[in-house]
Design brief:
Growth Hormone, Chain: A, globular, 78% helix, single chain, 223 residues, mainly alpha
Length: 223
Amino acid sequence: MPSATSSFAEVIREFGNTFKTFFQKPGVALTITFMLLYRLGEAMLVKMASPFLLDAAEVGGLGLTTGQVGVVYGTVGIVALTLGGIVGGIAASRQGLKFWIWPMALSITFPHLTYVYLSYFLPHNLILINIAVAIEQFGYGFGFTAYMLYMIYFADGKHKTAHYAMLTGFMALGMMLPGMIAGWLQELIGYYHFFIFIMLCTIPTLAVIPFMKIDRNFGKKKK
């Protein structure tokens, strides 16, 4: 019967081997870069979307009530996000991740223009605000499908569950690091220029896509 010491040593050895095999995977550096950059703009936008909707026009916000924000972002936005994810999953199952990676990357970045529009014109029309938020959230849901599918694709193989868990760590890091500076940056340059800066963040997101190597059949629903 193995001793507790030998069992613990085996666990540590296996734990180290899991990390080792992850960082030995082909294209791991590109994958980590992708994980950190794909949601760069969204990571900052999501931190400031609600404050923007709530803040008064004097400071560049839309001046909505808490209840209105609950409907706009917490109801309409969530429904649009869910629909975007469903449509993204259906699309990927038909033609695969490789076919959809560019449309999905554009979908998760360019709808941020709706916030540039809102912060410039500061509309009072609640229907228009709902439409703008719904467009951005639908794009996020649709584009996020590529992110999740690529995590599954890269994690495949030995230790795939542990490797997928490690990728979720990088996913969280990709949201946390940009989010840490979002509030400071917005106070420094204001909402309008902040959303312009978010549009500039689409450049590193899209710049990494041409280098992604994906099996053209991955994600397709098997007949």
